[in-house]
Amino acid sequence: MTYFDYLSNEQKQKIFFLPPTQEPLDLNKATLAHALGATLYMPGTSHRAISKIMNNEIPGLISTVICLEDAVDDREVDVAEKNLALQLKGLRRNVPDGMFPINEKGGALPFIFIRVRNINQFKRLTNSLGPALSVLTGFVFPKFNTGNGYEYFEQLVKINKQIGKRLYGMPILEDPEVIYLESRTIALLKIKKLLDDYKEIVLNVRMGATDLSGLYGIRRSPELTIYDIAVIRDFIAELVNVFRRNNGEYVVSGPVWEYFSSGQRVLKPLLRQSPFQEQFGQEGQRVRYNLLCCYMDGLIREVMLDKANGLIGKTVIHPDHILPVQALYVVTHEEYCDARDILANGGNGGVSKSVYNNKMNESKPHTFWAQRIMKLSKIYGVLNERYDYTSIIYEGEKLHCIEWSDGGYQS
Q: Which pTM value belongs to this model?
């Protein structure tokens, strides 16, 4: 499994200075944590979720979460559990022992996670799945806190011993105590201490921005980003402050983007015309128009702000979101050159002029940033000079036609 494998060799040679890695993305935890990209949520009631994965029907999909919590009606929990168990056991029968799961076209399957509702369901489900657990990469723990967190991870440790494989946990922070002013700092520090005890199986830290916004009766419009919602912006700042320090790095993922088709616009679009028109002409304008019609400009802006704040990875609810999100994680030629020069100094200090002659690179304060850029450059690749994310979107758009149904959306 590699990023942008739907592009031809000719397209890749044109776009990339360094192509995405051909090595396994789960080679180690640090690589996998940065490599989830746009994680597509699919409801546990979908009868075709696994077959879509097996048949490679969702171009660019690297990671997916089969959701048994918010995506499932309370009255359909039992049906969803049985449906999921049936599909996973069927998938397991198609995977020989010791083999990496592959899809119908011979490519590697995406990383599959299950989002459970609560600790009781987690225990029940993992006990019933048996050998089918081996096709999973891990689990998502909603409304994670110090009251349920130890039990979640102790059960995960027990499962890993039983199946002889490392499955990961991804906690979602969305309880009132992590955002209310009077409790959030203490709550986040306690959760950090808990996760430190299980660090080897904590893949990343996720946030439930929708649930947290709901506590205040707030919902962002498609023309705004989550960073325009002050109370969530403050929460993200504190989350980064606690979990993204360079002496004990956790990967923190960006919040879900929930819009997938357009309505009536009030504000100006967030995508400039020139990057599309100057490089791709009239066809580029058409691609830009399609992005605007689906409010992708808001999504693109939000991912840029995620990156600026140290977040990597994004929860998405529509397959059309995968391409633009992952295109933005490709490292630019300028970023790569800066990171390479900073690390070449060996952390000895000093300042040097950027290869692009537009900034200073200061070795000591920029080292942590440069190390992360090099991680991302290996996973997602490095763009050729004078290329940017619009190049990948444009090339991918020509191949990107998805019919999305059965518990999802049409595009």
A: 0.89
Helix, strand, or coil (residue 85)? helix
Query: What is the 8-class DSSP label of residue 27?
Result: S
Do residues 355 and 338 make contact, with C-beta atoms less than 8 angstroms apart?
A: yes
Q: 3-state secondary structure string, 185-240?
A: HHHHHHHHHHHHHCHHHECCEEECHHHHHHCCCCCCCCCCCHHHCHHHHHHHHHHH
Q: How far is CA 326 from the centre of its chain?
A: 9
Helix, strand, or coil (residue 64):
strand
What span, in angstroms and rounded, lies between the C-alpha atoms of 351 and 346?
Answer: 12
* CA proximity to 315, closest of 182, 208, 220, 203: 208
Contacts of 298 (CB under 8 A, 6+ apart): 222, 223, 224, 225, 257, 259, 270
Cα–Cα distance for residue pair 206/252, rounded to 1 Å = 6
The percent of the chain in helix, strand and coil, each rounded to the nearest 5, is 50, 15, 40
The amino acid that residue 282 corresponds to is Q
Tens-digit pLDDT profile for residues 77-124: 899 989 898 889 888 877 655 444 554 444 578 999 999 999 999 999
Kind of pairing between the strands at 382-383 and 16-18: antiparallel
Contacts of 199 (CB under 8 A, 6+ apart): none
Q: Three-class SS of residue 289? A: helix
CA distances from 199 to 149, 152, 204, 253, 302 (A): 13, 13, 10, 16, 28
Assigned CATH topology for domain 22-329: TIM Barrel (3.20.20)
Q: What gap in Å lies between CA 303 and CA 259, rounded to an integer?
A: 14
Return the ∠ at Cα 321 (arms to 318 and 325), rounded to 5°: 145
Give 16's contacts (C-beta < 8 A, 6+ positions apart).
Answer: 330, 381, 382, 383, 384
CA distances from 404 to 69, 320, 341, 409, 410 (A): 21, 9, 44, 5, 5
Q: Which residues contact 191 (CB under 8 A, 6 or more apart)?
A: 144, 145, 146, 149, 171, 173, 178
What is the distance between the alpha carbons of residues 386 and 405, in angstroms, rounded to a whole number?
38
Q: What is the pLDDT of residues 332-388, one digit of tens each?
A: 999 999 999 999 987 677 888 888 888 988 888 899 999 999 999 999 999 999 888
- Alpha carbons 299 and 317: distance in angstroms, whole number: 12
* CB neighbourhood size of 273 (10 A): 12
